[in-house]
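Annotated sample (chain length 436).
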Amino acid sequence: MPDHAHAPGPGPAGSARRRLATGTVVVAFGLVVTGVGTLAMLSLAARSLPSAAYADFVVWWTVATLLGTSFGVFEVYLARLLISDLTAGRSHHSASGLMIGRAGVMVGVLSVGLLMAAPVLAQDLFSGELAPALLLPVFMSLMAMQALQRGASTGRHDFVAIAVQLATDGVARAAVVGALVALGADSVTTLSLGCSAAVVVSIVVASRRLGPWLARPRVRGKEVPFRPVLLLLVGSAGPLLANNGSVPWLRSIEAVSPHVLGAFAGAVTLSRIPTQFVSAVMSPLLAHLSSSVEAQDEAAFRRVRRTADTITAVLGVIYVLVFAGLGQLALALLLGPDFTLGMANLAVLAAASSGMFVAVVQQAALGALDRWHWVALAWGAATVTFMLVLALPGDALWRATLAPLVGVGTALVIMWLFGRNAWTSTSRHSVARPAG
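Output written by the structure step:
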């Protein structure tokens, strides 16, 4: 890709809506495939591993993806920077190199912490097995590369590359885990290695579509401010805990049986899959809203945001009703008849996912306007309320069920309050950097 490639602007309203719809459909296809791959992996593991080992594996998967998705902050900010640079005709290497370098620092710090905590994690989460704990930093590092690659793709408006990465990851995950099960090499460690191998394949395949996207890593650079990245990192714990945090907490306190833990983890995974589909709009929506900000087209910005808010809210209500009614059947088909969870628990988990539908739109809008401090504040408060719910007395399963909903609700209220009138005529300059 040339150093000064042009990023598509918002253009006429009709063409902008078509690009947004097309990008959403393309990314959604990749998310559908990777979601099916995750379900296939969990189904194979539930039927091949003993219940205690399966509980350990779903906890590993939950913790590993929780750590890996923390690098979504680099994906979002890199995309925003590249859209600004490419619109202004600047080289993409500066932003790419800095985001890669800073993500690398975060990988190193977290990896050291994980390795130091590995004996404790092995004892508390993986029935004393050390290997799964040692694989956590490996999987996290690979997911960090995936996030950076998606950020580069969004910045270039290449949503096909995102779909290729996601779809390849899902297909490879299901194929590798299926092969391991067929060969009788199914254990928590081997399945974890298989998931890591699938991520490697997805990065390689997507790179062939995207072309050169890496740049020389560096950490210091005044042309790319560090404060927004720090703010996003501070706020990243909220959505991560809301999506996955209840599962390792429930495992660590050993308050439920392996079958109940497996059913809860499966329900969390099932309830979050529609969130992934709705998140398909995140990359094209962020690209479109950011381009509207660069062009100072407030009308287009507000129109797209209003439409996305309405659609996600309606979909959320429908999803709660559907998942509450069919969730038990879906769990039985996915994991087997021994894994069940109450209808009320399923409805609450679905409500938390529905809240994430709307949060996707709110965060994209605030990110396009470079209001990172509001995003950080919202999810930081969500982290506090999530932990408070877990600390309350009462049934552990219900606390684990309610905590995600309370956290997401907290973030939504704060983002709505601060984002109602977030548009300013100077918002585009907050990411501007010298051309040289």
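Annotation: The mean pLDDT is 81.
Annotation: The radius of gyration is 21 Å.
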